[in-house]
Write a structure and sequence with these properties.
Number of strands of chain B: 0
Helix content of chain B: over 70%
Order of helices and strands of chain B: HHHHHHHHHHHHHHHHHHHH
Distance between the termini of chain A: 70 Å
Structural class of chain A: mainly alpha
Number of helices of chain B: 20
Radius of gyration of chain B: 28 Å
Structural class of chain B: mainly alpha
Number of domains of chain A: 2
Number of strands of chain A: 0
Mean pLDDT of chain A: 83
Strand content of chain B: under 5%
Oligomer: heterodimer
Largest sheet of chain A: none
Order of helices and strands of chain A: HHHHHHH
CATH class of the largest domain in chain A: Mainly Alpha
Strand content of chain A: under 5%
Shape of chain A: elongated
Helix content of chain A: over 70%
Chain lengths: 180, 436
């Protein structure tokens, strides 16, 4: 015999949430610190985990480990979101920079050499993809056509490569306090 | 922090405007790239106590959130009562789609819970409520909850619909619903309980499709997630499911081992039926493995746990099979006939047919051709029942024809009986004769 899944049997429905938060406060602060969440962003993040608990409480059997896990997940999502925003910005930034000037512009040639150095620091499959994207200003569909890969695969790998490039640029910006 | 430092940090957070980004990227392209860096390491280590205020504010907010949700839940119960008073499914669908009062988080959850509760007894209601849950979940207006949390709500509603379609035998629709659920889950919060639930329900679909390798993989993932999240009862009940997949593949020792692992984790107060399922299934697997004395001992442990009258009928059925196989065909026949009567009285045609075929095996072994013909006459009216799907009807017709021609062998009766067991709730499973 099979036992059909049931709902609403968790213990989370009976818990005193305020009391639980007081008890877990040191743990949650440690998690936020471990993920280096900027204190000004911690409010939103904890409130989301809390909302999640309230919305799902009837499904939660072990409230304390669940809430710790939810805060960790929120921290991961926070970084994923930030990384996504940075990637979009860097991609657009490189496209803007590379689009300026004429083909024989010496400044553009310097920038192109600079871009090659940055790409050389990335895994081999990223180099050719991003060269096509920035060097020839091809979009995902055109890159796919030229490389023979499916557009969905090119899109996925390009995003991963852009993430890597963006992380390197952000690290350089922060560590060298670079500003024009 | 200097202006340059602040700009760099804003850039690292993806918060710079287009021109600022282009200027920074331009400057960076003239620099040597660093070897490696993770975004996370770009933030300074926070000072001790930096999060105390955030936690204190969350604590103050907790009571308010909890109270708001309780009010919404009460309101959802009223809305559901109103929907049920509408009388027909089409009116309920229209009301849910067109009236924004119904577009609440709590109503979506309540519909999903009620759909899950209806699954064992009332597949049509389970399906209708799951459709309504999906309709409501997709219409809940944006609120304080993140997009990811809203994706979890929708993923769970779609997974419930997938399960409801599976139970109704609509496997293609179930497949589509699970595809939607899994896509939404990828955009969700990463909550292991939500993920475990979707994977566990998806595993049931793969089981019904006889894709047992995938079913076992999905159920194993779900079990790991439940355990990691501290939901040990969820872990235990997923092991019961895993055991059924192994049993379908005739891996009866592994199936028993999974059940043994499940026992210490189950919470009988939370769901008494699970402990009965473990004992009953273990007895059934042992019977199939020919370990008859152990099966009888396990059955004795299951008896006091049977939660419903129908479960007691199920016990009588297995007890009859065991008596027959342990050399007491008279007791076996008595118990099988009693089980068949009880199922007939409950209007459960499929189970009636299943017990009938177990009786057919008993009669075939004893060469009782007249009883086979009588049994065949009693089976014919079951063909009209809705829960006896066409493939099962074909298998039963083969038995009835053979009984009329006095040509029922033990192997034919056993083959049809085995098929009926495997095809319970699986109308897509074709009947093929494998012997003689």
């Amino acid at each position: 015999m099979e036992v059909e899944e049931t709902e609403g049997l968790g213990a989370g429905g009976d818990v005193d949430l305020g009391e639980m938060l007081r008890r877990l406060s040191p743990d949650l602060q440690a998690i936020l610190g471990r993920f280096r969440i900027p204190p000004e962003d911690a409010d939103d993040l904890v409130q989301q985990a809390l909302l999640q608990f309230v919305r799902k409480r009837s499904q939660i059997q072990s409230p304390e480990p669940w809430l710790r896990g939810a805060v960790k997940n929120e921290c991961r999502m926070y970084w994923r979101g930030r990384s996504r925003k940075l990637t979009v910005a860097v991609d657009q930034g490189v496209l803007d920079v590379m689009a300026g000037g004429t083909a024989d512009d010496p400044e553009r040639a310097i920038l192109r050499r600079g871009l090659s150095r940055w790409l050389a620091a990335l895994p081999w499959n990223c180099r050719s993809l991003l060269q096509l994207r920035y060097g020839m200003e091809l979009n995902v569909r055109e890159v796919a056509k030229r490389t023979g890969y499916r557009p969905a695969s090119v899109d996925k790998v390009t995003k991963r490569c852009l993430d890597a490039l963006s992380r390197k640029m952000a690290a350089a910006a922060v560590s060298r306090r670079l500003v024009s | 922090m200097t202006a340059a430092g602040a700009l760099a940090r804003r850039f690292a957070r993806g918060e710079t405007g287009r021109e600022e980004t282009a200027a920074l990227v331009g400057a960076l392209l003239l620099e040597e790239p660093p070897l490696a860096a993770a975004t996370l390491e770009l933030e300074p280590v926070p000072a001790p106590g930096a999060y105390a205020n955030a936690l204190a504010r969350a604590e103050r907010r907790a009571a308010e959130l909890r109270e708001g949700e309780a009010v919404e839940r009460r309101r959802a119960a009223e809305l559901l009562a109103g929907l049920e008073a509408l009388g027909d499914a089409e009116a309920r669908r229209r009301a849910v789609e067109s009236d924004p009062r119904h577009h609440t988080w709590a109503l979506a959850e309540l519909l999903r819970e009620r759909s899950a509760a209806a699954a064992p007894e009332n597949p049509a209601r389970c399906r209708e409520l799951a459709h309504l849950a999906v309709a409501v979940a997709g219409r809940v207006p944006a609120g304080p909850e993140s997009e990811a949390l809203r994706a979890d709500l929708r993923a769970l509603a779609w997974a419930q619909l997938g399960n409801a379609e599976r139970i109704a035998g609509e496997l293609r629709a179930a497949e589509g619903a699970f595809r939607a659920a899994r896509d939404l889950l990828e955009r969700g919060t990463g909550d292991p309980i939500a993920r475990a639930r979707v994977l566990s329900l998806h595993a049931s679909l793969r089981g019904d499709q006889s894709r047992f390798d995938e079913a076992i993989e999905l159920a194993s993932q779900a079990a790991r997630l439940y355990r990691r999240a501290g939901d040990l009862h969820g872990y235990g009940r997923t092991l019961i499911k895993l055991a059924t997949f192994h049993a379908y593949r005739d891996e009866l020792d592994t199936a028993c081992a999974r059940l043994d692992e499940a026992v210490p984790h189950l919470d009988p107060e939370r769901e008494p039926r699970t402990l009965f399922a473990v004992r009953y299934n273990r007895a059934s697997y042992l019977e199939r493995a020919g370990r008859l004395d152990e099966a009888a001992a396990e059955l004795a442990l299951a008896e006091p746990l049977a939660p419903t009258a129908l479960d007691r009928v199920r016990l009588g059925w297995l007890s009859g099979l065991l008596a027959f196989r342990r050399g007491d065909p008279a007791a076996g026949e008595r118990e099988l006939l009693a089980a068949r009567e009880a199922y007939l009285a409950h209007g459960l045609a499929y189970e009636t047919a299943q017990v009938s075929l177990d009786l057919a095996v008993l009669y075939a072994e004893q060469g009782r051709a007249a009883d086979q013909r009588r049994l065949a006459r009693e089976i014919v009216p079951l063909f009209a029942a809705r829960d006896v799907h066409p493939e099962a009807r074909a298998a039963l017709a083969l038995y009835c024809d053979a009984a009329r021609a006095e040509g029922v062998s033990t192997s034919l009766a056993r083959e049809v009986a085995d098929y009926l067991e495997r095809a319970h709730g699986r109308p897509q499973l074709a009947f093929h004769r494998t012997r003689g």
